[in-house]
Amino acid sequence: MTDRIVRIGLLGCGTVGASVVRLVHEHRDDIALRTGCRLEIARVAVRDISRDRTLDLDPDVFTSDAGSIVDDPEVDIVCELLGGIEPARTSILRALANGKSVVTANKELLATNGK
């Protein structure tokens, strides 16, 4: 396959975030064949790190500090899955300022603040 790894940081791990984690894991081989790189969920920001989650992730991946993800030089892509305007807006702008690619489907934020 490939040795190139793209490290993803998730901001939020509710219904959508948990689905992203599952899809990345379920389709990792196909994604690697199609793209030439492996996707890795590197960090996940959540409100409550003690909450039980049924995800195939090391507990050390979770943090309650979203800023540590957008500032982490090892994270290549930030997926904003928080919804709403803040703190999503601030986190996205900070990630972009740090040279990271950002993925969001936050329609409220884009409609209110997007150009």
In words, what does this structure look like?
This protein has 115 residues and is an alpha/beta fold. It has a single domain (5-81, 95-103), classed as NAD(P)-binding Rossmann-like Domain (Rossmann fold), CATH 3.40.50.720. 37% of the residues lie in helices and 22% in strands. The chain has helices at 15-26, 28-35, 66-70, 88-97, 107-113, and strands at 5-11, 38-45, 62-63, 77-80, 101-104. It has a five-stranded parallel sheet, with helices on both faces. α4 links the parallel β4 (77-80) and β5 (101-104). It is globular. The mean pLDDT is 92.
Defining traits:
alpha/beta, 22% strand, Rossmann fold, globular, 115 residues
SSE order, one letter for each helix or strand: EHHEEHEHEH
Q: Quick check: average pLDDT?
A: 92
Low-confidence region ranges: none
| CATH architecture tag | 3-Layer(aba) Sandwich
* Strand order in space, largest sheet: 3-2-1-4-5
Per the CATH scheme, the topology name is Rossmann fold
Strand content: 15-25%
Q: How widely separated are the two ends?
A: 39 Å
Gyration radius (Cα, Å) is: 14 Å
Number of strands: 5
